[in-house]
Amino acid sequence: MTHLKIFLNGLINENPIFVLLLGMCPTLGTTSSALNGMGMGVATMFVLIFSNISISALKNFVPDLVRIPAYVVIIATLVTLLQMFMQAYVPSLYKTLGIFIPLIVVNCVLLGRAEAFASKHDPASSFFDGLGIGLGFTIALTLLGAIREFLGTGKVFDVVIMPEHYGMLVFVLAPGAFIALGYLIAIVNKLRKA
Fold first, then answer.
1. What is d(CA 14, CA 133) in angstroms, rounded to the nearest whole number?
2. Distance CA 92, CA 99 (A)
3. pTM confidence score
4. Which of 11, 72, 177, 180 lies at a C-alpha separation of 20 to 30 Å from 19?
5. Is-contact 93 39, C-beta < 8 A?
6. Each residue of 68-109: pLDDT tens digit?
């Protein structure tokens, strides 16, 4: 499999949100706006890329008995570094995303890719897998956040598109996340089968 195919696979065929339905907690919890969705997606993509590379490079040195705990330690270390970086350089986004940043450690997208791909492939292929899956995750979160923000407040990335009194509050709240995600999954599935 070429690196381009690996990359595109994560964007389309194995999109973690629209196809695999993984990582639903941050998907539903952080996408009340496009900026929050993109921030969470980029944070997860950073951890995914570097955990894939690390796990792929260390796969021959980690005994099978402690494989999963070793993956979790690698992921947790990267999340801790990410948290410290975000606290120092983007404190407002860090505050907004709150508990969802440390929860990246237990995001099934990361552990799933570590087990399904990085532990079986070389670091270069693992980088492209992490990039493709991470970018697919980021695009999905940003799109969902943009739709919810637009329908709920009339804005996208805080730019007013429609006067606020036309917004439907339900889309900024939890039920709106389920409704918007359901429609997006249906649209993506229809496009993939066409």
1. 7
2. 13
3. 0.93
4. 72
5. yes
6. 999 999 999 999 999 999 999 999 999 999 889 999 998 889
